[in-house]
């Protein structure tokens, strides 16, 4: 069964700024250029028939184009241990509306509701217990910013686990109006 997620892909200029931050945390597993995206909805393993229904339903989303901007950095943690470093996204009502539409579509095809709060971000690194301290990196990049970019499409990706990490392949892309 395919592992799917819906995401936005930042342009090269933004990805270059993000890649320039990727250093100085020992044992961090930094994302590569092909992995940089903003997840609107993680779906996970999906029955192919449900995936087909999802593709059809996502294609009917009506949403305007808008701009996004990177704003600061942060981290996720589990049990007090940092698990990921990320670049934040400046608050944006159009992004929030688009994410809610994607969530409604996912539920309309029978997928379970997402219970985690939507925190717009672009994951930069995965961390395990061997990773070095993150506080210096967070302080160094606290004012991270990149050029605002126009969001004019949404993509459905398939994620494949490989020995070198996850590989993300676009399945279909929809243009925003």
Structure description:
The model has no long low-confidence stretch (mean pLDDT 97). A hairpin with a 2-residue loop joins strand 5 and strand 6 (81-89). Strands 3-1-9-10 form a four-stranded antiparallel sheet, with helices on one face. Strands 2-7-6-5 form a four-stranded antiparallel sheet. A two-stranded antiparallel ribbon has the order 4-8. The protein is of the alpha+beta class and 177 residues long. It starts with a strand and ends with a strand. The chain has one domain: Cyclic Phosphodiesterase, Chain: A, CATH 3.90.1140.10. It has helices at residues 12-19, 48-58, 93-108, 135-140; strands spanning 3-8, 29-30, 38-45, 66-68, 70-78, 81-89, 121-126, 149-151, 153-162, 165-175. Helix content is 23%, strand content 38%.
Strand order of the largest sheet: 3-1-9-10
The CATH superfamily turns out to be Cyclic phosphodiesterase
Q: In what range is the share of β-strand residues?
A: 35-45%
Radius of gyration (Å): 16 Å
Which overall shape is indicated by the principal axes computed on the Cα atoms? globular
Contiguous uncertain segments of 5+ residues: none
> Architecture in CATH?
Alpha-Beta Complex
